[in-house]
């Protein structure tokens, strides 16, 4: 409280006292006791009113004790239940969570995880995946800039995410509590199976299989690969304590078109504790031909290699890079990528006049724009000899196909001559351009549709930098490659526009997210947000049918079908207003990744404890864990002094005192006939 406020309070006391004195005591005619009584209440009322007017700030110091957080994280995945450790896990959690001494020393916070991470709610051990890496990332975010211990109740068998050993902050100790059997059992396992989703008819496709053995003796096992009742490959394998892993590479013929289902199996004469990991089902979609794409260029440029690698990331695409004078026949190609065309491309344009092969034209500093104006009518170029850098701007209203903004705002600029580009009828802009901070309102990536076919135009060279930047941002080329593949897919198809477009995979593994997306367009081929889409799903095995509604998202409708059992399914997506429908099918392969383990991964959890200076604990060691946490001098409560400032006008009792004082004075005067 300031000096000036104190002076005003003293002045308020004097004024309240003087006014009360002159009102009731100066030349008082009433009884002395009554006058003193009334003067006191008048003094109280006036002084309290002055306090409200002055509204002094009252400060007081509060002592706050902040406890160190203790994160208890419990594994809620189905592997805990499969290894029959659910009751034991719940008991361990209850013993640690309810310990009074721990709660006195720590701010105990309990979480659960499987494929996701959340505060403790309902432990049911039904999670389809285990992501311990996600635990580390979430704890870093929740307890940012805080030193705290973590108790991790898990079997350590991660099925999703990065290596969790180095995901946790080494300055925060982790105490893994190993749940499950730590003994070593004899076990043969198909550890991993690598195969492409697609193969081409009359070709052979590779299947890479990694086999693993746990045991103390030299054993033989039989590996077989079958399709239906037909055994395609069978061989005997020998394992020993010094040779625990083996790999096989098999080449299978793609002699049937469509979805082909296969089964890989490893077995022995000895009974195993877990046989779920002895079998792995997989599928390959055999297609009858590739999409052949020609990149035609008269110059050498890094863009050519980047385009080829990005397009061929989809195994259904085959890219040939050729010079315009060397290409004699265009008929083998479904799409032509014409890179920086000039007069040398005349024979290519002339040959394509009759064939009408869809093309993707990319311009740059070596492009002859006068020649290009004479070869097409979608765009009109008026360019100068000056070079300019153009940054991309994504058009959120683009609706020709499902295009995603893959971070174009962070991409480096493309280089193209400075000038004016005018679009004609039938052109849709996906990316417009800006020069530094100035929006040019000119196109950068556009698509043209007419009765003669489809074409795309990219105005600028150095798109290889876009692919590189996408990898830097996402740690993968996938997003950029998928974006470019959608462009090629659009150009490779000459089908008439469909009002209902549905996207789905031909097969899924059990436990994987199963999402079907759809788009519905009106007669003007505009995305219809008012559409009502439903899906009817039929299990071919038990003939059961279920119906779901598709939920509208960002320019798409989606339905999540997670939790379906393995088997074959037919489905029909229908727009309820127009009755437009799409029929498809998919297969769910029988594979539960959480049932692939025989015991806990003690080695990984021990590495985690060592990396974070923690300690591993096992069954019936709850008391040792609690004692370790309580005895640690590293985690102490912090006492802080907080200054709390309260304006007197917020004090409700002051208003009550004024009301009581004035009311009492009035009633006393009324009673004594002084009014």
UniProtKB/TrEMBL annotation:
Gene3D superfamilies: 3.40.50.880
SUPFAM superfamilies xrefs: Class I glutamine amidotransferase-like, vWA-like
Stretches that traverse the bilayer: 6-24, 36-58, 651-668
Alphabetically ordered keywords of this record: Membrane, Transmembrane, Transmembrane helix
Name of this chain's protein: VWA domain-containing protein
Species, as recorded: Flavobacterium tiangeerense
